[in-house]
Amino acid sequence: MLELGVKALLAYLLGSLLGSLLMGRLRGVDIREQGSGNAGGTNALRTQGWRFALGVVLVDVGKALLAVGVLPGLDLPLVGFDPAVGRSWLAVSCAAAVVIGHVYPVWYEFRGGKGAATLIGAIAVLAPAALVPVLLVWLCCVMLTGYVGLGTMLGTATVPVYLALARPTEPALFVFGLAMAGFVAITHRSNISRMVAGSENRAKRLWLLRPR
Length: 212
Prior knowledge:
Low-confidence stretches: none
Order of helices and strands: HHHHHHHHHH
Radius of gyration: 17 Å
Distance between the termini: 58 Å
Number of domains: 2
Largest sheet: none
Structural class: mainly alpha
Helix content: 55-70%
Mean pLDDT: 91
Strand content: under 5%
Number of strands: 0
């Protein structure tokens, strides 16, 4: 269990490195004090522009690729490989930890983003084909409603459904997908409240089917 604990902790610490705040230091801004106050890619785009947001996404996706694609296979000194720990469970534990680190970063007073970009990076390693329904549902939802947050929640919810149908013999992946769908819904609770109140911002450029 030492390997599991150490690598999950390292994944969490890696997840705590937020692209928006690292990029913000270069520009001298803290996007948690602008727009929606969230340290994620959507708020970065709205407040700082697409170049800044692209850098944010690259960092937030890249750290997940490292945490899930590289970290589980590292032979760490004094840790080694534990034969009692299933490799699939280790991978999803690191994936969950890097997403949690992004949302609750120890380096930034536990005020992070909502986990979507980092989760995309994790899924890209664990089950890349699952990104197809995620992106299709996200795009259709945003085109119909203009709500990026709603599209993110619904897109994430397709992951456990896809895994249950396409990879039913891998329970670790299904548990991860189900847990992350619920976690992303929790991180978007403020979006849900604003949608209910009718005050949520809409992505007008992507809201192609809006009423005229």
